Structures are given as C-alpha cells and as structure tokens.
Amino acid sequence: DAVLELERVGLAIGGARILKEVSLAVPAGELLGVIGPNGAGKTTLFNVVSGVVRPTEGRVVLDGRDVTREPVHRRAAAGLGRTFQTSSLFPALTVLENVRLAAQADLGAAASVFRTPRPTDAATERARDALADVGLADAGDRLAGGLAHGEKRKVEIAMLIAMEPRVILLDEPMAGVGSADVPALAEVIRGLHRGGRTVLMVEHHLDVVLGLADRIAVMHHGELLAVDTPEAVMANPTVQSAYLGEGM
Ligand code: ADP
Ligand code: MG
Ligand code: MG
C-alpha cells in the first residue's frame, strides 16, 4: 500500500505553472530518488508534500488520508519529516541540544529544553539513540556551529530520526559535503531506509542516487517525466533528451 500519494498535483503561481499534474504513489519502505535539472520543481514538490505550499490543483494523500489542506505541523505529527536545502541547526547549541530539541518537539515538551538536562529524560535518550544511528555518539557535547559540513548533515538527519517520522523527505542531503564524506552520508541514508522508513531524496550526486534508490522520479519543467527503476530511468529516451545540454 502507498504511504504517500500525489494525485494530479498542480501549482500555479502568478500565471507560471510550477507543477503540472504530478501523480505519484510511494509504497511503504521505498527509497525514491528525485532527480531533475535546477528549477525543475523538486523542492516545490517537497514543499507541497510537507505542507509549506498548498497546491492549486490535485490532492496529497498520506496513509490514505487527504492532507492537502493540513498545515505543516499536522503532517509532521502524522509522521512526515523533512530536511531543507540549507542548514537548520542552532550553531550556539551543542549537537545533543539540537537533536534533543527535535525529540522534544515530537514529544510535545519543547519548553523544557532550556532547563538542566536530566539523563533519564525521554528526549535525551531519543537524542542519544539518534546520534548513535548516524555515527555521532561521541559528538553530543560539541557546538553545532563548529562541525564540518558532512557532520552537520548527519546531525540534521539525527534530528529527523529523533522525531520518529515514517516518511522522510531529504532535499539535497549531500549539498556542500566534500566528496570524501559522501560515502559515509550515503550509508546513513541507507540506514534510514533499512529502518523501514519511506524516504524521498532529491540529490544531484547521480551515482549516489542510483546506488541507493529503489526507484527514481524524474522532474522536468514541473512535470514528472518518469518514475522507474534506476536502470530503466537512465535508459529512457525521453529522460535522456530532457537532459541533453541541460546538465544536472
Ligand atoms: P528545484 O528544486 O528542482 O531546483 P524549485 O522547486 O526550487 O526547483 O523551483 C521550481 C521553479 O519554481 C523555479 O523556476 C522557481 O523559480 C519557481 N518557484 C519556486 N517557488 C516559487 C515561488 N514561491 N514563487 C515563484 N516562483 C517559484
Ligand atoms: Mg536545485
Ligand atoms: Mg531544490
């Protein structure tokens, strides 16, 4: 069964059609790569799914429930989590404090983060587990602002894990990460997927997407050109001609 369905989703802004009749069903546990040239509408698609932007046409269905008109926080409470293209960490807080904020937001106790942390706190435990999941068990006391790019991205993923989402949207999780850190980050994403979570990932590192994804969705000028296995997508003549001369 599909955990996420888009039904003929369209978005028009000031006469420009940013998304055009995008229909897509994502089965539970799938890792779907989303590729396409800059400006194709990938981030906008994530904004529509997460509730940041309301589509002008069509429906967004989460676990069989129409959430098209629901705000971001309701979708988050229903198990939808996302990262953004730019970093969302508080640089002056420690790594553990950042991740604990996310856990507490999910536990509905955000106000208590500014009190002395208690080791038995459920949020602290969740945060520590999430940091261990991304290989940063020993980085909890470091300041988030002092981390390398690749580490920041891992902490952002730990923040997601701490919110216990079932459906995760990753928007260019490798952006700004040095090539030496790409394999480790890919492993973290593979781990998210192994946990049974459904993952949608926009990524420009084609080799990474092709290696990780069960299927790949190709966006082009606001349209979904193809959704297929990595092999079939790369062999698709429509996809090939859409990219001709445009680069990724
Ligand atoms: P991608 O993530 O694939 O690079 P985006 O989803 O960011 O592409 O953008 C798709 C297109 O929609 C771009 O042409 C962008 O300029 C346009 N766009 C996105 N958001 C808005 C907005 N709020 N108002 C006007 N145009 C927008
Ligand atoms: Mg882009
Ligand atoms: Mg984008």
Automatic annotation (TrEMBL):
GO terms for cellular component: plasma membrane. Keywords: ATP-binding, Nucleotide-binding, Transport. Residues 4-246 form the ABC transporter domain. Gene3D superfamilies: P-loop containing nucleotide triphosphate hydrolases. One of its GO terms (molecular function) is ATP hydrolysis activity. It comes from the Bacteria. PANTHER family: ABC TRANSPORTER ATP-BINDING PROTEIN, CONSERVED COMPONENT OF ABC TRANSPORTER FOR NATURAL AMINO ACIDS-RELATED. This is ATP-binding cassette domain-containing protein.
